[in-house]
Amino acid sequence: MSYNGIGLQTPRGSGTSGYVQKNVVAKKTEGVREKRKREAENEHRRMIRVKMNEARKNAGADVRSHDEKRYVEVKCMELRESLEDEDVEDAEIDKKVASLRVKLLAEQEGRTEERKSELQTDEGQGLLDNTPSVPTEVNKHKNAGLETTADLPKSETAALKSVYDYVPRYDKR
Q1: Which domain covers residue 112, as residue numbers?
Q2: Count of domains in the chain?
Q3: Low-confidence ranges of the chain (pLDDT < 50)
Q4: What is the rounded radius of gyration, in angstroms, for the C-alpha atoms of the chain?
Q5: Which of 2, 53, 130, 152 could in theory staple to 7 by disulfide, Cβ–Cβ 3.0 to 4.6 A?
Q6: Where is the composition biased (Basic and acidic residues) (predicted)?
């Protein structure tokens, strides 16, 4: 009944069952150096997590700008393909694509400037990193719910209000 060379070869004649137990009394306590090392590692892991979260938050603006640039290039490629199908000369195609690219980039810059001016707080600090440019589905549903109660007939609106009226069970104590 040995496990990894620990314990009796056979429990026969020993008066025991041969079961090997862990010695809890001889357990060593963690020293000061090991504790400091472990705490330093935990602090390092925490700092890495904080940096990763900040990187994820800041990635939203980068992704948005990439999507806008990609949109411009897709429109330019669509124009190029349509002009090539019409057998237009290469020089003329390049001119039209370049003019479209300049036009779309100017529109894109105008939109980003408008967005930046809208997202400025009173102190002048921007909210670009934390504020999504498109309303979330939750906000859409909240707004839709507010609009539907105004459209209901007055009897249904009164019924809804009576359901949510609070009547205390006991007097103030």
Answers
A1: 32-119
A2: 1
A3: 122-123, 126-135, 138, 141, 146-147
A4: 35
A5: 2
A6: 106-119
Among 96, 129, 98, 109, which Cα is nearest to 69's? Answer: 109
| Collapsed DSSP state (helix, strand, coil) of residue 72 | helix
Residue 112 lies in a domain: yes
* Reported pTM: 0.38
Instruction: Report whether 133 contacts 65 (CB < 8 A).
Output: no
Angle between helices 90-118 and 32-85 (to 10 degrees): 140
pLDDT in tens, 38-82: 999 999 999 999 998 888 877 777 788 888 889 999 999 999 999
H-state helical runs in the chain:
32-85, 90-118, 137-151, 154-164
Q: Encoding tokens for residue 56?
A: 């994820």
127: tokens are 């909210």
Matching residue, tokens 């330019």: 76
The conformation of residue 7, written as its DSSP 8-state character, comes to S
CB 134 within 8 A of CB 117: no
**In this structure, is residue 19 part of a structural domain?**
no
Contact 38, 28 (CB under 8 A): no
Question: At CA 57, angle to CA 53 and CA 63, rounded to 5?
Answer: 130
> Residue 169 has which token pair?
């069970």
In a domain, 45, yes or no: yes
